[in-house]
């Protein structure tokens, strides 16, 4: 059973996250001090900007340069992507190459605009027809958009997972509805969504501390177990 950061921009020089190997090493040290065992390296992927093969090549180069310095230091890194939703993605080729390595787990970022029924249908098809284990990234960031309320409710009825940013648990006003989501089984995993050192830093430990204080150690253990099984066997867990 591992402590997993389900969302990070830890790879240097590939997106708006870490700008250098040195910064990444500092971020890894911070995460390690918080007890993180595994970080999912989920660099941004935008189909409108990137060809999959180009993205994969840049990601591999960044990872290999980092590993020359990192070696066995700090949390294990699992390569993946934060895939921005795009129209037609449920029929797109090579999405499997963007999943978390060794799994069918796809970290999906929904648009920060009004959603349409066709968007929700595409997510449903990613799960039901493509058999991806979809994790919705930082769902709480959309909850303040009234135009998407009914669509969020529909998504929460699907057999998928929800990732919440640790930062969102640190303020009491936002914390309460998110804790209820975790209690009801509508939120499943935490991610730091870390980008750098001076802001949007690795903070999974702070979010986990809130969950443990409010929901108990057994809840944290169950979350860690669920995440570990999901990544190890590629999806034979129940939401």
Automatic annotation (TrEMBL):
The molecular function terms of the Gene Ontology recorded here are:
manganese ion binding; protein tyrosine phosphatase activity
Question: Looking at the record's lineage, which domain of life comes first?
Answer: Bacteria
Question: Sorted alphabetically, which Gene3D superfamilies does this protein's record hold?
Answer: Metal-dependent hydrolases (3.20.20.140)
Q: Which reaction does it catalyse?
A: O-phospho-L-tyrosyl-[protein] + H2O = L-tyrosyl-[protein] + phosphate
Annotated membrane-spanning segments are: none
Which Pfam families does the entry link to?
Answer: CpsB_CapC
Keywords (alphabetical) are: Hydrolase, Protein phosphatase
The EC number(s) given in the record are 3.1.3.48
Respond yes or no to whether keyword Lyase is given for this record: no
Which family does the UniProt entry place this protein in?
Belongs to the metallo-dependent hydrolases superfamily. CpsB/CapC family.
Name of the molecule in the record:
protein-tyrosine-phosphatase
Which species is this record about?
A: Candidatus Anaerobutyricum stercoris
């Amino acid at each position: 059973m591992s402590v997993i950061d389900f969302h990070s921009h830890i790879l240097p020089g590939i997106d708006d996250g870490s700008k250098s190997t040195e910064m990444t090493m500092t971020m890894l040290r911070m995460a390690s001090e918080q007890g993180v065992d595994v970080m999912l390296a989920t660099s941004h992927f935008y189909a409108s900007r990137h060809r999959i093969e180009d993205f994969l090549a840049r990601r591999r180069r960044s990872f290999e340069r980092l590993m020359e310095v990192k070696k066995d230091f700090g949390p294990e890194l699992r390569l993946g992507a934060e895939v921005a939703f795009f129209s037609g993605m449920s029929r797109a080729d090579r999405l499997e190459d963007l999943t978390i390595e060794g799994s069918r787990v796809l970290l999906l970022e929904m648009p920060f605009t009004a959603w349409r029924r066709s968007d929700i249908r595409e997510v449903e098809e990613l799960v039901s027809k493509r058999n991806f284990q979809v994790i919705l990234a930082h769902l709480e960031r959309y909850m303040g958009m009234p135009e998407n309320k009914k669509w969020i409710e529909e998504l929460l009825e699907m057999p998928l997972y929800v990732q919440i940013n640790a930062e969102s648990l640190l303020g009491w006003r936002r914390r309460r509805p998110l804790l209820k989501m975790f209690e009801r089984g509508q939120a499943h995993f935490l991610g730091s969504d870390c980008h750098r050192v001076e802001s949007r830093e690795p903070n999974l430990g702070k979010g986990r501390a809130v969950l443990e204080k409010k929901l108990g150690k057994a809840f944290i253990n169950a979350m860690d177990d669920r995440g570990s099984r999901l990544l190890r066997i590629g999806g034979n867990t129940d939401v």
